[in-house]
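Good morning,

Attaching, inline, the backbone tokens for the sequence recovery test we're adding to the shared suite. The designed sequence is right after.
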């Protein structure tokens, strides 16, 4: 019985942090290993547009972002891992620091973060 309890404690101690250790919702650049195929630039752009739509529907950004075309799409290296950065430039926003929004997407098509800093 004592052995069973010890084994369970070890499993919980080792297993739970890896199960729930996903970090915060902020943009944490971490190398991700995946067996998925990389997606095309066009797919990345469509995903970025969907992310903007999602943020407007959630009222996190102004509705005017829905009608803003993509300004730039480029692939960057961050911590030895490639990812896409898609930017939108909305001159209708009064706050100059919030006129450009950046959507970060992995080469496998996972939205990593969205922010105004580009970092």
């Amino acid at each position: 019985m004592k052995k069973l309890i010890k084994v369970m404690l070890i499993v919980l101690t080792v297993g739970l942090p890896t199960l729930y250790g996903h970090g915060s919702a902020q943009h944490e650049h971490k190398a991700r290993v995946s067996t998925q195929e990389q997606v095309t630039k066009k797919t990345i752009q469509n995903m970025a547009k969907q992310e903007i739509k999602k943020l407007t529907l959630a009222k996190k950004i102004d509705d005017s972002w829905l009608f803003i075309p993509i300004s730039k799409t480029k692939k960057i290296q961050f911590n030895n891992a490639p990812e896409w950065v898609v930017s939108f430039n909305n001159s209708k926003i009064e706050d100059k620091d919030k006129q450009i929004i950046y959507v970060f997407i992995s080469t496998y098509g996972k939205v990593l973060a969205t922010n105004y800093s580009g970092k």
